[in-house]
């Protein structure tokens, strides 16, 4: 198959799939999701993504009708049905199906969706451009919910301006994350600095792998907030996501940035690419 959609046991080509009108996702965006990539039909960091998926669901009182192993088995079986060995693997749980009502039965079982499409991970050695924007999202950014309107608008703003990402900041200048990525710096002391996993950022799996890489290579890591000014003056600005393990910024708001720790940056990128390739060989 060229691509694949799945809904509660049914599957088929994406443009042929349908879902019930009364799925609560349509009225409330009531659900959580996670995503990763494949290489050679093998799903990268699947256990970590499933753990986060179940944690997001638990934080919103969404009852997934499967065990972690059952979800993993479903995903591993489905990726084999798509022709391309390199795929974007997306899955979500919506709270359930009922006629529109803000409240829901306590025993409601979630609906499980999966989307698979051919996509390769990005070239991590390519430097990218970014812009900044105020972070106007709600205060549950640590939960990977389907309520993504601010992310959509900021991603579209970046698209219109011909840049890769929009880096978000809160009042006072604290940098949080991007429209669909985490952001980090190599600070003036040559230490990887990344925002703590509080309620203002998503605990990214790629973020965790970046930290793991730095520790394996003997580089210091500081999980502490940084400001816009600190970011603009950093040795490197790094953007991470499941499909872009460690991409450095060359400009932010049309101002040249980074480029001051190229050896450290490349060592980290090499480690992450090798980890991905080893896990999916």
Q: How many domains would you count in the coordinates? A: 2
Order of helices and strands: EEHEEHHEEEHEEEEHEHEEEH
- So, CATH architecture of the largest domain? Alpha-Beta Barrel
Low-confidence region ranges: none
| Percentage beta strand | 25-35%
The description of the largest β-sheet is: 9 strands, mixed
Q: Supply Rg.
A: 19 Å
Distance between the termini: 22 Å
Total beta strand runs: 15
Helix percentage range: 25-40%
CATH structural fold name of the largest domain: D-amino Acid Aminotransferase, Chain A, domain 2
Structural class: alpha+beta
Please provide a written account of the structure.
This protein is of the alpha+beta class. It folds into two domains: 4-118, Aminotransferase class 4, branched-chain amino acid transferase, N-terminal domain (D-amino Acid Aminotransferase, Chain A, domain 1), CATH 3.30.470.10; 128-280, Alpha-Beta Barrel (D-amino Acid Aminotransferase, Chain A, domain 2), CATH 3.20.10. Helices cover 28% and strands 28% of the residues. Strand 8 (165-169) and strand 9 form a beta hairpin. Helix 5 (205-217) packs across helix 7 (262-280).
């Amino acid at each position: 198959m060229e691509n694949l959609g799945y809904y509660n046991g049914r599957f088929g080509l994406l443009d042929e799939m349908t879902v019930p009108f009364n799925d609560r996702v349509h009225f409330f965006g009531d659900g959580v999701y996670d995503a990763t990539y494949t290489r050679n039909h093998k799903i990268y960091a699947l256990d970590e993504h499933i753990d986060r998926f179940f944690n997001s669901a638990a934080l919103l009182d969404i009852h997934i009708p499967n065990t972690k192993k059952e979800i993993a088995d479903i995903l591993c079986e489905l990726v084999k049905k798509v022709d391309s060995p390199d795929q974007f693997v997306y899955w979500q749980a919506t709270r359930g199906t009922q006629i529109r009502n803000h409240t829901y039965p306590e025993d409601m079982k979630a609906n499980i969706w999966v989307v698979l499409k051919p996509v390769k991970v990005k070239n991590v050695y390519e430097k990218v451009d970014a812009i900044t924007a105020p972070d106007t999202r709600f205060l549950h950014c640590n939960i990977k919910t389907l309520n993504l309107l601010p992310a959509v608008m900021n991603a579209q703003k970046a698209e219109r301006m011909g840049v890769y990402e929009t880096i978000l900041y809160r009042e006072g200048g604290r940098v949080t994350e991007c429209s669909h990525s985490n952001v980090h710096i190599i600070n003036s002391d040559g230490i990887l600095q990344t925002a703590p996993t509080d309620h203002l950022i998503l605990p990214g799996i790629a973020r965790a792998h970046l930290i793991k890489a730095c520790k394996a290579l003997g580089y210091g890591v500081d999980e502490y907030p940084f400001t816009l000014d600190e970011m603009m003056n950093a040795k490197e600005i790094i953007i991470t996501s499941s499909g872009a393990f460690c991409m450095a910024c060359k400009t932010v708001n049309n101002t040249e940035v980074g480029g001051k720790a190229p050896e450290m940056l490349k060592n980290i990128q090499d480690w992450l690419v090798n980890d991905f390739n080893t896990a999916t060989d």
